[in-house]
TrEMBL record, chain A:
Protein name: Myotubularin phosphatase domain-containing protein
Domain annotation Myotubularin phosphatase: ranges: 124-502
Gene3D superfamilies referenced in this protein's UniProt entry, alphabetically: Pleckstrin-homology domain (PH domain)/Phosphotyrosine-binding domain (PTB) (2.30.29.30)
Protein family according to the UniProt entry: Belongs to the protein-tyrosine phosphatase family. Non-receptor class myotubularin subfamily.
CDD domains hit by this protein: PTP-MTMR9
Annotated signal sequence range: none
Transmembrane segments: none
TrEMBL record, chain B:
Coiled coil: 538-568
UniProt protein name: Phosphatidylinositol-3-phosphatase
Main location: cytoplasm
Gene that this polypeptide is encoded by: MTMR7
This protein's record includes keyword Cytoplasm: yes
Residue spans of biased composition, Polar residues class: 583-613
Keyword terms of this UniProt record: Coiled coil, Cytoplasm, Lipid metabolism
PROSITE patterns: PPASE_MYOTUBULARIN, TYR_PHOSPHATASE_1, TYR_PHOSPHATASE_2
Compartments it resides in: Cytoplasm; Endomembrane system
Pfam families, alphabetized: Myotub-related (PF06602), PH-GRAM_MTMR6-like (PF21098)
Domain of life where this protein originates: Eukaryota
Provenance organism: Felis catus
Length: 543, 677
């Protein structure tokens, strides 16, 4: 298939409106296989304007007598308006954008063509392999080993090649435990909390089924988890479904761990919203944010109605519960829901951020996202196929990753000095998860990425983000390493709407930017003064 | 250690009042933590002539909670339970104290005493008449001179060709709730003013509130006209003409009635009402629709009830917040201010503002508009001037609105609280536009109710003069000014195009810009506030930069000397540079970070070791209490809105606390400290 087949009209004259605060742009509109370009013409001073077609979420066209208006709603929640000369041209362009923005094929997507200057293919793809995290764990404890039982992705198609498992359990037992877990996601190490010696483990639901099946190897695996921590250690299974939903899952072959089969483990149910209801919550929130005509009361009513903040609260408090169990109770924690690829990862990654000072650094956070989301098999391609505007609803979309970013933002708001990265990084991750020139968020699992040769044929987002010119945008100038756990407040008054994301294109950006400049100035002033201290090297002469 | 010394000092000054009262003292009282009702601190309750004091028994901390009687809003005695008799004290600064007193009799005594103490009947009973910050007479007088309104009018560029100082209200002859010094249009003769005043409620005739020198437009204020259904007053019409003429650039003025139209029309039946456009030439009349003091009082009440809900869901909270209407009212006030600011700065048209009596909504709206228009009011001193001008001098009824003396509860309403919140909402939208920070606003709110300083006493300038306030009490402004370092906004940029001149508000109506102000309404629930304060951190950084700067200068001087000496001694020895003692700036974080709250809900999932949490919390709050002693009274009330950050270990003076020690500290030992606390 050639892109040119889909491009009905290559160019047209157009005016671009970018929201109430930005001035409109005029020029020649060009459509390529991956981009929409607006070239302001030779005499104009402003630069070329470029939009990745993949980031278009929905498109709406209206025609008048001799022109057409296309409204593009983007996955990063931007709303753009194109006024195009000529009815025919505008309809053609609209259809072309529609076709090009919804291409399914991964290997024809832009990351496979993107070759930015200054970056080398293959760079940064090996920044965060599981092996590297294992090295850290191995320094802290001897109870765990790196297993390559999933070398060819046959045991669990959504796990990476290497996973960290209890040393005392052999690969055969792992494979059998995998058959007892949905999608083969047997319990693996997510995080080792060195100060308490406890661990955070994640998996999918056990396939207990209506017959209440058991699996000796799975039971042994979880026993080994407790023994690895310390003799007599206890564990909690945090099930991210309600106990009723967990029971119901048995009818379809799933279920929960039976109490008698797993001595030492106690089950807690903390229902988290997932899947379609979560997506709807996102859609309704974005709708409410876009409606500028409403009264204050109806705004609050809609904020309440969409429940987004309630989801934030639930996610954060479940993560806190897991973290508290480890740090305060000295217990091991196993987290799973059903598939173990969504709310499970939400809880494990947030719990680490709360407990682990390293994961709050720039590199550590990127490592956390890579390890706990991308390699852990969060199906990004399915979940982030569409954002809040699309009318083409498939049932796989869910803003779980966005919910994670929002929770991180809440942590950052409550502990403004404790995260090395700023809002900029979170916004960038949101954008790139939904549409990106980089390959990092492509596909649904490590297996798929291998098949598509993502690592060798696309650039890694991390190498893009870690370029020196990006640093200032992404870093938190206030950062001071905090060796303690950061326990957020999950009271309602403490949680706020993430305006920087949801109102990013609606509220005027300048005041916060001006403030940010000032923060940087204060901090760099200090650095400069410090550097300019004269070195009193000269020994004081004995007088 | 600073803390204990300081407390001693306070005790000395308190002692004589303690002796005055036949000392109510109740032991074994429990103070219940509001967030998790499981936690309670055992201690002793004291009632003095001025304060309620609760001292915890915990031997290490002896944490003290001080509440001024004037802060007490309501006292509620609840049904006796097995554990004792609960007493709920709600404060005007949004503190909520739940005490459990073992004996019903004691509880009743405390209740009766507090009811009396919280409702003084004479001004002389108020704290400001006994409060003595140990300043001599001269210092006190200087304090009162810090804010000078005649200077302020000069700053605006007055008097000039169009406006003059009028002595028509000398000795409060025309209007007893107005100040004696007022600016009026030059063409308004005494005859016109007096005539107009007779046609206005409480004789509050149109007078200047703010003059915008860039284009001669002005904001004037008054009360409603006594127009009824058809009454007219030539002098009043002339007065409005005079205001229009004082702005030669415009051929009309706006008359803004800040009430909802319905309310204004209802007033006509009582012989009051609003200006008829047919009778006044060249006016454009406009209703704005801010609700009256009773609606506002109920709205705040409802919002506080939402804050008090026990473990509400997110939906309960947002629904309750919406239902209270509070943010809608805040937006209405802001919208009125924005309308006026735009009329003045963009259209160059003068505005006359009134409501009913012209001392509540009018004060709110005029001061919000002034704040938007003039960057001076966004500075620390300018903001004091603004409150002095639009609120204190123009006769906002502080005593009635804030219930300083026992009075009609229907007169009480959070009018200035709303203005203060408007300022905060603006600060959130324009983080660099204000010289002062959130703490400044919170402390002003606190002192409006505390009656510790004389500024906000009484209902008018006249009453204050009769009471000789300036000779008998101290000024809050001087106190705040002295501690201004605590109130600075490190992000303030007076040089930026965005913060100079009129604040540019977004053209589209943005409801989401109005947020619940947790820092005010939940300020005593430390657990709900951000755990680290950006403001304090940046101030500390700035302070350190300055210190480094000074140090460098000193070192350079020394270097010069050394070099001179070295010219003589030619021998040079290389040595390692002296490590800067500030190198440990990025120390570990506050320790509250290490205190989880109750995340398990009612599940009691971790029954084994949780009970220690409560003690940790309170111990931590105490440690913060030690930090900011700049405002003794506030500290005494365990009021630390600055966040939990222990900056003392960062600031150069407290350098003993080495960062390496802290970060290397075993977490368990860390915990142990809390447990013993």
């Amino acid at each position: 298939m050639e892109f040119s087949d889909l491009i009905r009209t290559g160019r047209a004259q157009a005016k671009l409106l970018r929201g109430p605060e930005a001035p409109p742009l005029r020029g020649t509109l060009c459509l390529t296989g991956h981009h929409l370009l607006l070239s302001p013409g030779p005499q104009a001073t402003s630069e070329l304007w470029l939009l990745l077609l993949r980031s278009v979420d929905s498109i709406e066209k209206r025609v008048a007598s001799d022109s057409g208006t296309i409204t593009l709603r983007c996955k990063d929640l931007r709303v753009l308006q194109l006024e195009i000369e000529g009815v025919e041209a505008s309809l053609d362009i609209a259809r072309s954008i529609e076709a090009l923005s919804s291409l399914e094929s991964v290997i024809t997507s832009f990351p496979f063509f993107y070759r930015p200057k200054g970056l080398r293919l293959g760079d940064a793809w090996h920044f965060h392999p599981p092996e590297r995290y294992y090295k850290r764990v191995a320094r802290e404890t001897n109870a765990w080993r790196l297993s390559e039982v999933n070398e060819d992705f046959s045991v669990c198609p959504s796990y990476p090649r290497a996973v960290i498992v209890p040393r005392s359990v052999d690969d055969g037992a792992l494979a059998r435990s995998a058959r007892f877990r949905q999608g083969g996601r047997f319990p693996v190490l997510s995080y080792h909390h060195a100060p308490s010696g406890t661990v955070l483990v994640r998996s999918s639901q056990p396939l207990t089924g209506p017959q209440k099946r058991r699996c000796a190897e799975d039971e042994e695996l979880l026993r080994a988890v407790l023994l690895g921590a310390r003799p007599g250690a206890r564990g909690f299974i945090v099930d991210t479904r309600s106990s009723q939903a967990a029971k119901q899952a048995r009818m379809t072959g799933g279920g929960t761990e039976a109490k008698a089969a797993y001595p030492g483990w106690k089950r807690l149910h903390r229902p988290l919203e997932r899947g379609q209801p979560l997506q709807e919550s996102f859609v309704r929130l974005v709708e409410a944010c876009g409606d500028l005509q409403q009264s204050t009361d109806s705004w609050l009513r809609r904020l309440e109605g969409c429940c987004w903040l309630a989801h934030v609260k639930e996610a954060l408090s479940t993560a806190c519960l897991a973290a508290q169990g480890m740090e305060r109770e000295g217990a091991c924690i196993l987290v799973h829901g059903a598939e173990g690829t969504d709310s499970t990862l939400l809880v494990t990654s947030l719990a680490q951020l709360i407990l682990d000072p390293l994961s709050r650094t720039m590199a550590g956070f990127q490592e956390l996202v890579e390890r706990e989301w991308i390699q852990a098999g969060h199906p990004f391609q399915l979940r982030c196929a569409h954002s809040a505007f699309s009318h083409a609803r498939s049932k796989h979309e869910a803003p779980t990753f966005l919910l994670f970013l929002d929770c991180v933002w809440q942590l950052g708001r409550q502990f403004p000095l404790s995260l090395e990265f700023g809002e900029g990084l979170l916004l960038a991750l949101f954008e790139h998860a939904y549409a990106s020139p980089f390959g990092t968020f492509l596909c649904n699992s490590e297996k798929e990425r291998c098949l598509c040769e993502v690592r060798t044929r696309t650039h890694s987002l991390w190498s893009g983000l870690n370029q020196p010119k990006e640093r200032r945008k992404l870093r938190n100038p206030l950062y001071a390493p905090n060796p303690l756990a950061i326990w957020p407040s999950v009271e309602l008054q403490s949680l706020r709407l993430w305006q920087g994301l949801f109102l990013r294109w609606i509220r005027p950006p300048e005041p916060s930017e001006v403030a940010w400049e000032k923060v940087w100035q204060i901090v760099t002033d200090k650095e400069k003064t410090k550097l300019s201290q004269p070195t009193v090297s000269a020994s004081e002469p004995q007088l | 250690m600073r803390y204990s010394l300081w407390m001693q000092a306070t005790f000395i000054s308190e002692k004589k009042y303690t002796l005055l009262l036949e000392g109510v003292k109740v032991e074994n009282v429990r103070l219940v933590d509001r967030i998790s009702s499981k936690k309670a601190a055992l201690g002793t309750l004291y009632l003095t002539a001025t304060h309620v004091i609760f001292v915890e028994n915990a031997p290490d901390t002896r944490k003290e909670t001080w509440i001024l009687h004037s802060q007490i809003s309501t006292i509620e005695k609840q049904a006796t339970a097995a554990t004792g008799c609960p007493l709920l004290i709600r404060c005007k600064n949004f503190q909520l104290l739940q005490l459990i007193i073992p004996q019903e009799r004691d509880c009743h005594d405390v209740y009766i005493s507090l009811i009396r103490l919280a409702r003084p009947v004479k001004y002389e009973e108020l704290y400001c008449f006994s409060f003595n910050p140990k300043l001599d007479k001269e210092e006190r007088e200087q304090g009162w001179m810090l804010i000078d309104l005649s200077e302020e009018y000069k700053r605006m560029g007055l008097p000039n060709n169009y406006w003059q100082l009028s002595d028509v209200n000398r000795d409060y002859r025309v209007c007893d709730s107005y100040p004696t010094e007022l600016y009026v249009p030059k063409s308004a003769t005494a005859h016109i003013i007096v005539g107009s005043s007779k046609f206005r409620s409480r004789r509050r005739f149109p007078a200047l509130s703010y003059y915008y020198r860039d284009n001669h437009a002005s904001i004037c204020r008054s009360s409603q006209p006594l127009s009824g259904f058809s009454a007219r007053c030539l002098e009043d019409e002339q007065m409005l003409q005079a205001i229009r003429k004082a702005n030669p650039g415009s051929d009309f003025i706006y008359v803004v009635d800040t009430r909802p139209k319905l309310n204004a029309m209802a007033n006509r039946a009582a012989g009051k009402g609003y200006e008829n456009e047919d009778n006044y030439s060249n006016i454009k009349f406009q209703f704005i629709g801010i609700e009256n003091i009773h609606v506002m009082r109920n709205s705040l009440q409802k919002m506080l009830e939402v804050c008090e809900l026990k473990s509400p869901s997110m939906s309960d909270f947002l629904w309750g917040l919406e239902n209270s209407g509070w943010l809608r009212h805040i937006k209405a006030i802001m919208d009125a201010g924005i309308f006026i600011a735009k009329a003045v700065s963009e259209e160059g048209v003068s505005v006359l503002v009134h409501c009913s009596d012209g001392w509540d909504r009018t004060a709110q709206v005029c001061s919000v508009a002034s704040l938007l228009l003039d960057p001076h009011y966004r500075t620390l001193k300018g903001f004091m001037v603004l409150i002095e001008k639009d609120w204190i001098s123009f006769g906002h009824k502080f005593n009635h609105r804030y219930g300083n003396l026992d009075g009609d509860p229907k007169e009480i309403s959070p009018v200035i609280d709303q203005f203060i919140e408007c300022v905060w909402q603006l600060m959130e939208q324009f983080p660099c536009a204000f010289e002062f920070n959130e703490r400044f606003l919170i402390h002003i709110q606190h002192h409006i109710y505390s009656c510790q300083f004389g500024n906000f006493l009484c209902n008018s300038q006249k009453e204050r003069q009769e009471l000789k306030i300036q000779e008998r009490t101290y000024s809050l402004w001087a106190h705040l000014w002295k501690n201004r370092a605590d109130y600075m906004n490190p992000l303030f940029r007076d040089d930026h195009s965005q913060t100079r001149g009129t604040l540019r508000l977004p053209t589209t109506p943005c409801n989401f810009l109005y947020k619940f102000w947790s820092g005010m309404y939940n300020r005593f629930e430390k657990g709900l506030q951000p755990r680290q304060s950006v403001t304090d951190y940046l101030m500390a950084v700035k302070e350190e930069t300055q210190q480094l700067e000074e140090e460098r200068e000193a070192l350079e001087e020394r270097l010069e000397k050394i070099q001179k000496v070295q010219l003589n001694h030619t021998k040079v020895k290389a040595k390692q540079s002296e490590p800067s003692k500030h190198s440990g700036f990025s120390t570990s974080d506050n320790s509250t970070a290490n205190t989880p709250q109750d995340y398990s809900g009612n599940m009691k999932s971790f029954p084994s070791r949780s009970p220690s949490q409560g003690d940790e919390d309170s111990a931590l709050i105490l440690t913060q209490d030690n930090l900011k002693s700049s405002d003794p009274d506030l500290s005494a009330n365990s009021d630390q809105e600055s966040g939990v950050e222990d900056l003392s270990c960062r600031s150069p003076s407290g350098g003993e606390c080495a960062p390496s020690e802290d970060s290397g500290k075993d977490r368990d030992s860390d915990e142990a400290v809390f447990l013993t606390a």
